[in-house]
Task: inverse folding
């Protein structure tokens, strides 16, 4: 599950089924798989399913600690029409 919390607009939560895990030469770990559902909760509102029935491929990459001792996470998904 990947969740983005936006202070002024609400929360987006994408749940996906991991089908692949890789580690590159620099130590970045990437997991990929299809999104099972995306739930949007507007600030002060009720949650609802976004793009119900669509299951695009998603990727989540955990990067090694940088010079400031902080970790980054990258997130991407494919266009379901392509």
Result:
């Amino acid at each position: 599950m990947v969740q983005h919390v936006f202070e002024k607009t609400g929360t987006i939560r994408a749940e996906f089924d991991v089908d692949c895990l890789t580690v590159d030469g620099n130590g970045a770990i990437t997991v990929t798989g299809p999104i099972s559902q995306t739930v949007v909760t507007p600030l002060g509102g009720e949650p609802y399913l976004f793009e119900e029935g669509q299951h695009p491929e998603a990727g989540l990459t955990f990067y090694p600690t940088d010079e400031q001792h902080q970790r980054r996470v990258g997130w991407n998904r494919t266009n379901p029409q392509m």
Q: What stands out?
A: The mean pLDDT is 89.
